[in-house]
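Request: Show me your protein:
***
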Amino acid sequence: MKAVVWQGPGKIDLQDVPDARIEQSSDAVVRLTMSAICGTDLHMIRGTMPGMVPGTVLGHEGVGIVEEVGSEVRGFRPGNRVVIPSTIGCGNCSYCRAGYYSQCDNANPNGPAAGTSFFGGPQSTGPFNGLQATYARVPFAAVNLVPLPDAVTDEQAIILSDIYPTAWFGAQCAEVSRGDTVAVFGCGPVGQLAIAAAWRFGAGRVIAVDDVPSRLEMARNQHAEAVDFGIEDPVSVIGDLTRGIGVDRVIDAVGVDSYAGQPDEEREGEIAEAAGGGETAWEHGSAPSQAAQWTVESVAKAGTIGIIGVYPPTVQTWPMGAAMQKNLTIKMGNCPHRAVIPQLLDMVASGVSDPAQTLTQTRPVDDVLEAYRIFDRREPGWLKVALAPVA
């Protein structure tokens, strides 16, 4: 089968690899009808997510058709159409039963204390081969497959695999409620959906912060108040917009991408030549990320910050003192996708929400290397990229 394989920082290839197969009686094999490129995948390629194992298949977003099931999988059969949650849970441990699938005790083969397990990640997450492939092995399939109704398209479902639940989780972490003024830092695909989620949670105002004109325009189309940090100080502008009070809630949808001290010329085109290689990782240093500083400075006293932008374990600095002085509440983490998807799936199936509007490009997996390069450059029209696997 064809798959996008990680070989080293800056090195990915589309390769022929052995077909995915049943390895445990609780597994299923799914034929992917659509996968996607996520900003988290860029962390793997750039080297900012340490511990990647050469030969790992990338990708953690997938929609497809069940091809085969293990003997313990009683709720699915070949031919069922499904969406695959990005994070992996067993369904049996106390964390899964409480809805914290992303902190499952059993899914991660590195042990209960190893943390979140997800498809296409580094050694510390499994690793489990990812979903940018023709077929995928899905462990604990009884819980890690979600059936799709005919009314939901692949284009809608691929957004439900990761980024829409993550954005919704961000609004939950930030404790967005009726009448709140909310700032969303980062207007990529997750940020755009976080804006939509904030409105759904009852926000009275949403302020969107980014420096990419096309993304800010999309935020304006959702009636968010756009702030371009490339030409204005977002903390000062937010202060002016809120009469010096600050926002009630903040959603950090940026993460390590805004690390202080990373020059723009180094950020642009981090995936210089995916086939040709080249070292692309940068050092995190000792300063907090720019987004972390801005979120703390922008939020009102006794406000709440929800962090869903990816910060790898190597990042160990955050403006703790400033947050403490303002009595802030900070919530963060990896989305427990399986707990969030059903509610959003109902919203999509009923026509209440259409997350496919976030999907701006669909490319055959044969074009994946070029698609990664363009996506990394954040070019207009490349907000979210889906991949159609080769049969």
Notes: The radius of gyration is 20 Å. The first helix runs from residue 39 to 46. The mean pLDDT is 91. The longest strand covers residues 28-37.
